[in-house]
Specification:
The chain is mainly alpha-helical. About 75% of the residues lie in helices and about 5% in strands. The protein has seven helices and two strands, in the order H-H-E-E-H-H-H-H-H. Helix 2 packs antiparallel against helix 4 and helix 4 runs antiparallel to helix 5. The protein is extended and about 75 Å long.
Length: about 150
């Protein structure tokens, strides 16, 4: 008895969905970590020359970003530090969930106080960060190696 064409299509669809379910979380986490780290690192690079935060970065925090309750000089320095330190942690996969949580907090501040209309971009960032927060950094990480060492 031959299968109806619709049954064949349904079977292929189910097979395809099954294949999607086999994408390793370790791969997803690695891609999420590296891609979002690059976004924040590149932003941090626009705020510094060498080891110094630029005057233009401070100026942006004074005039355009205008965060409430935070001095613009301090905000520029904290942003420059965060956009370099936490991405390095994500690339290494060290304290990954903490680093992702810190950058998620920064993303929320940017979304709420600086660029509320950029929610599609910030939502994409949040998705990458939430993958790491919820599922961990994956096997290609220092966190995984440290956890394995402590299990011994």
């Amino acid at each position: 008895m031959a299968l109806a064409p619709s049954q064949t299509a349904i079977g292929r669809f189910r097979c395809l969905i099954s294949l999607f379910g086999r994408i390793p979380q370790d791969l997803t986490a690695l891609i999420a970590r590296l891609s979002i780290a690059a976004v924040f690192w590149q932003s941090g690079q626009t705020k510094v020359e060498g080891w110094q935060v630029t005057e233009s970065a401070v100026y942006l925090f004074e005039t355009e970003y205008k965060l409430p309750l935070v001095d613009p000089w301090l905000a520029a320095h904290l942003a420059a530090f965060s956009e370099h330190f936490f991405p390095v942690l994500l690339v290494l996969g060290f304290a990954s969930r903490f680093a992702a949580l810190a950058l998620l907090g920064m993303t929320l501040v940017i979304e709420i106080f600086v660029f509320p209309a950029a929610w599609p971009t910030h939502g994409t960032w949040a998705a990458c960060l939430l993958i790491v927060i919820a599922g961990g950094p994956g096997k290609v990480s220092l966190d995984h190696m440290v956890a394995a060492w402590f299990r011994r």
